[in-house]
Amino acid sequence: MHVGYAAFFQNPGRHVSDKEMYEHEMRMALQAEPLGFESVWTTEHHFTDYLCSPDVVAFLSYLAGATKHVLLGSMVVILPWHDPVRVAEQVAMLDHMSGGRMIFGMGRGLGRIEFEGFRTDMGKSREIFVEYAQAIMEALETGVIKGEGEHFKLPPMDIRPEPYKTFKGRTYAASLSPDSMPVLAKLGIGLLVIPQKPWPDVKKDFAIYRDVFLEANGAEPPPPLAGAFCYTDEDPVKAREEGARWIAGYYDSMMKHYEFGEAGLQRTGSYEYYNRINQYIAKHGDEGAKKDFIDLMPYGTPDEVIDKMRHINSQIHNNGFMVSFSYGGMPYGLAEQSLQTFARQVLPAVKQIDTPPVGARKSA
Fold it and tell me: Domain of 139: which CATH number?
């Protein structure tokens, strides 16, 4: 099992200065390689304290120079907010600078405030995503980018530097919506999964994705990569209480940023599925929905975390975890203590879970 470290630049309520937050998050990210993690990740967000990480490639470029071996993952670059030419160039350049260590994760975005900030029509995000993703993926294979769609028109242009090596098997996308599964499958993209809904629902989505992927690409899809918010401590009471407390803090920040549960906020265009989240919250109540989210995450004693990560693997057959340890306003000392305990007592066991390597592709 591949295990990576996910840096989440959260500063809920500005409980510290952004300077202090960044010093802490960078310090923790730089510990990942010496502690035995195999990759470092972050994701793109703007304008709120949900995540203060507006430039994924800049962060990963810094890590490329500060590390030797870890893979460098974007989870994700939000394509509708970028010029696809620049994305292809930046990814190719980072791949060269890091010696081919880039894992390219992409997405279409969900936060209304972010679409408004980038003056982009949220209702057209799926079709924009498809056009941009097709152009970028082709450019990263051929070295030539072109656009012939409604939202991206460009005669063939070389990207320089030309691609370092193929991105097949190391390109992923994040999605919660089952409507997006056929889209991602046809593009030949792997899945990034943040546990957020019951496993039977996830399995149904995966079945749709696998069937379309196999038909469109003549090969089995790569195993998914799974994100996780983790807290671990040798004291069982502390482990469970602190874990539940800070994962709940992350959940609250997510609900606020994405405006889930907001009365009257109905998503339209290609986002109708997300209205079901509001329906779920209405049915189970705020606390019930929050508890369900917390229960999906690997927190507790080291043995409990190992068991939970094995359980997740048994449900979705992932071959990698992207684990976050600092989130929800958690005190930084507590976050580093959890990280160190995980590295000593959890990481070796989870790495022993037998899975295909990240980046491998299976034939049909």
Answer: 3.20.20.30
Instruction: At 57, give phi and psi (nearest 5°).
Output: -65, -35
Q: Cα dihedral sign for 324, 326, 330, 331? A: positive
- Residue 329's H or E segment, with its range, is none
Report residue 42 as tokens. Answer: 């972050």
Q: Is the pLDDT of residue 269 over 90?
A: no
What is the rounded average pLDDT of the residues 204-225? 93
Q: Cα–Cα distance between 46 and 107 in angstroms, integer?
A: 14
**Across 19-28, 66-75, 166-175, 317-326, least confident range:** 166-175
Each residue's pLDDT tens digit, 243-266: 999 999 999 999 999 988 765 456
Residue the block writes with tokens 């997300």: 274
**CA–CA separation, 144 vs 167, rounded Å?**
14
Residue 151 lies in a domain: yes
Residue with tokens 């790569």: 222
- Separation of CA 69 from chain center: 20
Q: Which token pair is 254?
A: 């997510």
Q: Is residue 359 in some structural domain? A: no
Q: What average pLDDT score do residues 163-186 get? A: 90
Could you tell me the residue range of the domain that residue 86 belongs to?
Answer: 2-351
Total domains, the chain: 1
**Which is it for the CA torsion 42, 44, 50, 51, positive or negative?**
positive
**Peptide bond just before 222 cis, omega within 30 deg:** no
pTM: 0.94
Question: Is 334 part of a structural domain of the chain?
Answer: yes
In a domain, 358, yes or no: no
CB 208 within 8 A of CB 181: yes
The span from the CA of 267 to the CA of 47, in Å, is 20
